[in-house]
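Example is below:
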Amino acid sequence: MLVQPYNLMAHGFLLFLLFSYIISTNIHACKQTERSSLLSFASTLSSPSLNWTSLDCCHWKGITCDQDGWVTRLLLPSEGFKGGISPSSLRNLTHLTHLNLSHNSLYDSLETQFFLFFNRLEILDLSYNRLFGELPLSPPSSSIRTIDLSSNHFFGAIPSSFFQQASNLTSFNVSNNTFTGHVPSSICLHYSPSLRLLDFSSNVFSGNLTPGLGKCSQLQVFRAGHNNLSGLFPEDIYNATKLEEIALPLNSLHGAISDKIANLTNLAILDLSFNHFGGKLPLNLGKLSKLKFVTFDFNNLEGALPPSLMNCTNLVELHFRKQQLGRRYHHA
């Protein structure tokens, strides 16, 4: 008498497993519109084959989908890609949060509406390509946290308004391009107070470093070397007390270095070489006990080195070549 109910229960359990399997196999299946967009993008590249052939693009190399089948990540760095990049072919990837096509040989400009296409984007890394043109007119959204456009051929100015919605931006790297105009040092003052890294080095920026960096309360790295910057060292930078690195070599900055530099107690790297800094070094420079690398080569500093530098027990290199200092000093 118990055989029939048992069979019914077993049959029901098998149906449940089959239904669960069908659901689980479809829960990650990608949207056909997004699959078509990815194939359109791949067709513009002259590169090794991606072997994107299966029906479900969520299982393709470099693609990650969420549980609803939306493509959220496109990560294809160092794949040897060559050819033009057409962001418009990816505009249907409306849930994209991570885009990394770095270390390839892609060329093209970014369309003016680039960031409107990808308004959920959190991480953008297009570094080490051959991209060119000005920054898109449409500013990135509040979702963006990292922008890395370094080592390309971008040009033009970077207006502060570019950051007007980027309230959660933590890293902005545009080094090794040909950007011009002023360094947008008021970013934290008005838009992105959470920045930890700012890298403007190896461009053609000019003019003074305007106030504003002091409002970057989370800033750890500030680089703007190899430009045409001039004027005085911005006083308010000494308020950015979490700074661990300041690198401003090969500019035309001048004036004395304030004793307020002692506020930067986390500073480990200080490179102000190949500028026109003058006067004496602050006597309290030795309060920066975390200093490891200090370079003042080719400036107009004068006088003796402050004895307090002997307190910097972590110091690995200290360079003062071609100065008017009373003596040279090297600690290793």
Summary: The CA atoms of residues 142 and 166 lie 5 Å apart. Helices lie at 3-27, 32-43, 114-117, 187-190. The chain has four helices and 23 strands. Confidence is low (pLDDT under 50) at residues 15-26, 326-332.
